[in-house]
Design a protein that fits this description.
This protein is mainly alpha-helical and 348 residues long. It folds into two domains: 237 residues, Up-down Bundle (Alpha-lytic protease prodomain-like); 83 residues, Cation efflux protein, cytoplasmic domain (Alpha-Beta Plaits, 2-Layer Sandwich). A three-stranded mixed β-sheet has the order 1-2-3. Helix 10 links the parallel strand 2 and strand 3. Helix 3 runs antiparallel to helix 4 and helix 5 packs antiparallel against helix 8.
Length: 348
Amino acid sequence: MKGRRVKGEGLVNNSLGNSCLSRNIVVNFWFSVVLYQGMPEREKMFSTKARATKLLIGVVVGLIIFKVVVGWLTGSISILAQAADSLLDLFAGIITFSAIRFAAKPADTEHQYGHGKVEDIAGASQGILIFIAGGLIIYSSIHRIIEIERYSIQLADAGIGVMAVSIVVSIFLSRHLLRVSRTTGSVALEANARNIATDVYSTSAVLVGLAIVRITKLNIIDPIIAIGVAIYILKVAVDTIRKPISGLLDEKLPPSQQAIIDACLVKHSPGVVGFHALRTRRAGSQYYIDLHLVMAKDIHLEQAHQICDQIEMEIVNKLSEASVTIHAEPCNDECEQCYIICSKRQIK
């Protein structure tokens, strides 16, 4: 009949509204992700360090807005913890963008080895920010557990939808950033890529926690999940700091890159007796290599210079942004240990 109100109509409408909200959030975000991934030219647009960082900042801003809104609507501390983590991702992205621009400046009279270590400083700063975020999440979660009776989770469906979309976006974004970081050798961008990748695991934990809360109505699960996420974030912080610190302390290049250098040196066996005093270090995406190259005693200076130039070019072609310094020196007349044919050692 006209004007008749069905009992429980408000509850039904609220439930439908919640489902529609979750569905709309997921559909809109999913459409954006699929649209971006389906356009190869867009991927090329963001293939440089600076443009990849701009992409990072834009995506993270969008995630922060949705997480904050849904976290406030649901009252979920685990979603707000995710928003805080994304906010730190934004700060890290801004730091990376500034560091990459500064590190790209050429060497000058006061910085004769360039500005590459700015990237290492940025990477270490990101690790510190991540660590602080983990500590704040643990503090807030413990406070929520102590006063659990005052809190309850609302609109769990919306929270589940946003977390699902966040997982998909983070997967695509982290893969793209990691690919660009490997191509360009950017330590700061790699730190961002690994930071975003950890969001996939932490967000998955939040999603599972919200699903359990929705089914069981046990609100205490939410802060417990948040603590678990925070512990994982602390581990990521330590891992993120480790590589930049090794760069700041001038740690030698990893074995894979050392092997590339050795292979370039061995190729020039005619005229080259051997090498020693090989030293390597990294500053951001730049590599610095110096060594002593032992040559046959009767080799001409011009020929020695050509061999050094060839070795330098080959190393630079294999390790982009490498600076190679070679000190050439004559052999020490230990012919019994030498395989080079020269005027002092003829084939009999």
